[in-house]
Amino acid sequence: MATTADFRNGMVLEIDRTLWTITYFQHVKPGKGGAFVRTKLKNVLSGAVVDRTFRAGERVTSVRLERRPVSYSYTDGELFHFMDQETWDLIPVSGDMLGRSQLKYLKENMECHGLVHDGNVISVELPDFVELAVTDTDPGFKGDTAQGATKPATLETGAVVNVPLFVEVGDVLRVDRREDKYLTRVSA
Q: Do 153 and 105 lie in a common domain?
């Protein structure tokens, strides 16, 4: 058990048999009345975000989630199957649970993190930074660099990111998948 004084960003709580991650919290001491804690909670399974207020000192159930390495194996159209690297079990995960922002960076044999609760993998997270090859982009022209120009590039998974003009087809890029942002060229 924990209290509202223990709240930290990233802490996982169990409320009404549902797991929630604290994404934001603020202790409020109004001039009149009792203190309270305003929070934004994200559902671990569905990704839904809700606002919730707790009384100061209120007890909550804290949950510890483990991270376990899993790798992406294949999709059957509806479910995405990951292999647990410790138990070798196949873990089916729906596309809704992964989220559209993650799906466009998912590549076969990609190492990911499985969130484990009570011995079962309940969710999968892709790495924040992925390395993918460029499959299609327009050629860059000399003299177009006055304003730090960029051009769209299609990666091997189908994701499109803006890249500098010197990037060519076949280059391997490191991309921040959370922001859909080019970071650096890994190799040509």
A: no
Residues 148 and 183 in one domain: yes
Domain count, the chain: 3
CATH code (residue 23): 2.30.30.30
The amino acid sitting at 133 is A
Q: Answer yes or no: do 15 and 47 share one domain.
A: yes
- Residue 182 exposure: Cα atoms within 13 Å on the Cβ side: 22
**Environment class of 126 (CB within 10 Å of its CB; exposed 0-12, middle 13-18, buried 19+):** buried
Token pair 């990233």 is found at 10
Residues 90-144 have pLDDT tens digits of 888 877 777 767 788 888 899 998 888 887 777 788 888 999 999 998 887 665 5
What is the sign, positive or negative, of the torsion defined by CA atoms of 103, 122, 16, 3?
A: negative
- C-alpha span between 31 and 39 (Å, rounded): 20
Q: pTM for the whole thing?
A: 0.70
